[in-house]
Structure formats: C-alpha cells, structure tokens
Amino acid sequence: MKNEGNNLLNQYAGLAMQLLVGLGLAAFAGIWIDKKINVGFPLLVWILPLGVLIIMILKAVKDTSSNK
Questions:
Q1: pTM as predicted
Q2: What is the rounded average pLDDT of the residues 41-56?
C-alpha cells in the first residue's frame, strides 16, 4: 500500500516538473521569438505558455482518468 502512494507521489512530482520546465521554455521561446519578429506587444509570451498549460491539463486529465 505504501509503495502505491509513493508511485502516485512520484507521478505527480514528475508532472509538476514537466509543467515548470515547459512553462519556462515556452516563456523563454516566446520572448525570443517576439524580439525576432519585433511585435509591439508580447504576443507569443502569452500564447506559448497558455498552450503548454492546456496541453498539460489535458495530459493530467488523461493520466488520472479511471478508464484504464
């Protein structure tokens, strides 16, 4: 029973780490691309991290669904 709880903790810790790294990379890429295309407002700084959040939420729902 304890091993099952530990596996669940590792699964959620891995998901959290993926989320943090994904958001960081998306924000960095958004800043870099916005500088390259010289947009007057931070368009991709908002769009890329939002896309990462949507993808990660869908992944979390899929991974935690009871249909296995």
A1: 0.77
A2: 93
